[in-house]
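Note to self: keep these together.
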Amino acid sequence: MQTNQKQHEINEYAAKVIRHKARHLVGTAGYTESDRDDLEQEMMLDVITRTPKFDANKGTHKTFVARIIERKISKLIRHRTSEMRDYRREACSLNERVDDGDGSTVERGDLLSQEDADFQCGRRNRTGAEEMEFLQDMEATLSALPAHLRRLCEYLKTGTISDAAREMGVPRTTLNDHVKKLRAIFEDAGLRDYL
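Structure:
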């Protein structure tokens, strides 16, 4: 009976602290009022799953619960503001209705090109303009190469150094030296990021 009473007191204390912390978390890291119930639930779940690890020799129940909640809040904010999920990158919703220029409205996502969508989702690391610049720079660098290095580049587009060595009839060690030369040439041409 005593254990149940103590557990009830801990849960009441945790619920009170969690409600308070969730209220203060709204408006931070992009959390809104509609997130409050979810935040409270996540914090309470963390408290419940960690309570069996309480050690009375290290502190009080209230301190233990408060630390669990503080750490959970830190994790929630860190998760929410990590680069790939950063709420500040979301300038608008793709479901938002906008004027299409012809007097009607469409969802913003319908106006996004596949290229832009791929770039925003991380499936491409360069925009179309950057890709075009890269191709032009690469073409200029390749055209300035001696024929044997240009041929090696063609083989390396789809194969390994071993494949290129077989096709060209050259020892792999020789091609390794050629690859080092190619790296230096590409770096000198400002194409280091593409290596």
